[in-house]
Specification:
This protein is α+β, with helices and mostly antiparallel strands. It has a 6-stranded mixed β-sheet, covered by helices on one side. Strands 12-14-10-15 form a 4-stranded antiparallel β-sheet. A 3-stranded antiparallel β-sheet has the order 4-5-19. Helix 1 packs antiparallel against helix 5, helix 8 runs antiparallel to helix 9 and helix 10 packs across helix 11.
Length: about 450
């Protein structure tokens, strides 16, 4: 045990866990105001006590919702909810004077959570509550580690630390109005660490995902005359089966989730309208384009297959004849960057600080780190205490152990002091070289 995680840190984490920080996308329409602003104010006050300075505190400008890559669900929620951005501000903290990016380490952590209240508690060894591991616990442990850095003299502090504490990570927001604007404003460093539960493994990768929506907009019918309507249930069911079979392993490293299919719940009618959702993750932009092309190709093939298979039936011939006309494919999100970083110097620095390297075949997962893809002259990794699955993130019984928070706090201290004393190779500020494989503009 490092002893860096103090009684004040315990009180801070319990206080943050008590504040409901479910974002509007998770809470759904009609939900009351989010506690995210209150949580960020609480975190900012604790950070100032630890020696950090607030350099930015506020929401993104509205134009960020119109940028390419913003998921449809985000735009729709913003239109439907007054104050959507105002109740999801972001915070940037700094330890040390302003320095160029090559002498700066940046940590990113999100304080918004998924929906579902969990009992808040601490038994002396384990914290429970929504956000315990994802990611309020890591956020507090990060401050504990930086407080120790702030108390060190001399060369150990000859670098600057930035902390991004953001909202808009959960619920499909994908960091588009939280992390993305902060990186665009230059709040990043030579080394960037996104604090997510990885079992203290350094994962210099983050997948991105796209969501395809298949909509049937036909006419329904009474159950006594099912042939008179467009049967969206049978049509979408056929497409779901066809796409599941044809898109399995459609791109190396890509994953397919055949998600929600909805037409209706009654037994005595034919539903003429409905939707089918597909979510596809990918590790590189090239993989993403391969998957998108495969979806569009197999969607067309599936419609033709349905029309051929059901053309001679009594109950579904009308649906078969109209399938192409009443069905459409749209994208709720598409074209987001994926992160792949690689830099021997940064990887050695992380290893000396105590971070274990993730296996090369570990694709990582989707998080806000995607927006660091392509930042010139930088290395980015995902690193934090606990595990998304073992610690029940997004599920009942979410927890994080004090021992894991202690270990992460100590790792943060070692990483920052190591960065200050082990200078990275010199880079030309005009050189657009990046240590990531992907180079889209943020």
């Amino acid at each position: 045990m490092s002893g860096l995680f103090s009684g004040a840190d315990t009180e801070l984490l319990l206080r943050l866990l008590e504040i409901p920080t479910v974002g509007p996308l998770e809470a759904g329409p009609g939900a009351g105001p989010s506690g995210i602003p209150a949580a960020l104010r609480t975190y900012a006050a604790a950070a100032e006590d630890a020696g950090l300075e607030v350099v930015h505190h506020g929401p993104a400008a509205p134009h960020w919702l119109e940028r390419p890559g913003v998921p449809a669900v985000v735009r729709e929620a913003a239109r439907a909810r007054d104050g959507f951005l105002a109740e999801q501000p972001s915070l940037v903290l700094r330890l040390g004077p302003p320095r160029p990016a090559e002498r700066t380490v940046m940590f990113n952590v999100h304080l918004d959570t998924v929906a579902g209240a969990e009992p808040v508690g601490f038994d002396g060894a384990r914290f429970t509550g929504r956000g315990a591991v994802d990611a309020k616990g890591p956020a507090v442990a990060l401050l504990a580690g930086l407080r120790a850095v702030a108390q060190l003299p001399g060369a150990a502090r000859e670098s600057t630390v930035l902390v991004q504490a953001v909202a808009g990570e959960e619920g499909g927001a994908m960091g588009t109005f939280g992390t993305r604007p902060l990186l665009d404003a230059g709040h990043y460093g030579r080394l960037n660490v996104f604090c997510e539960p990885t079992g203290l493994r350094s994962v210099p990768r983050a997948t991105a995902s796209m969501t395809a929506r298949i909509t049937v907009d036909g006419e329904g019918a009474i159950d006594d005359r099912p042939d008179a309507g467009h049967n969206a249930t049978v049509l979408l069911g056929h497409l779901a089966t066809h796409l599941a079979a044809r898109l399995d392993r459609a791109a190396p490293g890509g994953r397919l989730c055949v998600a929600g299919l909805h037409t209706g719940g009654a037994h005595n009618r034919v539903y003429g309208t409905g939707t089918l959702l597909l979510n596809l993750s990918y590790g590189t932009a090239a993989e993403g384009e391969l998957l998108a092309e495969a979806v569009e190709r197999e969607y067309a093939a599936g419609l033709k297959d349905f029309a051929d298979a059901f053309a001679g039936t009594r109950e579904f011939a009308h649906t078969a004849a109209s399938a192409a006309r009443v069905t459409r494919l749209t994208w709720d999100k598409r074209g987001l960057p994926a992160l792949r970083s690689g830099d021997p110097w940064a990887e050695r620095l992380l290893a000396r600080a105590g971070a274990r390297a993730a296996p090369a075949d570990d694709p990582g997962f989707t998080c806000d780190a995607i927006w660091a893809a392509g930042l010139p002259g930088t290395f980015t990794t995902v690193l934090g205490p606990g595990s998304l699955d073992l610690n029940h993130a997004h599920a009942e019984g979410e927890f994080v152990d004090l021992a894991d928070l202690e270990e992460f706090a100590a790792l943060v201290t070692r990483l920052v002091t190591g960065f200050a004393t082990d200078r990275p190779p010199e880079t030309d500020p005009t050189d657009r070289t990046t240590f990531a494989d992907e180079r889209p503009s943020v």
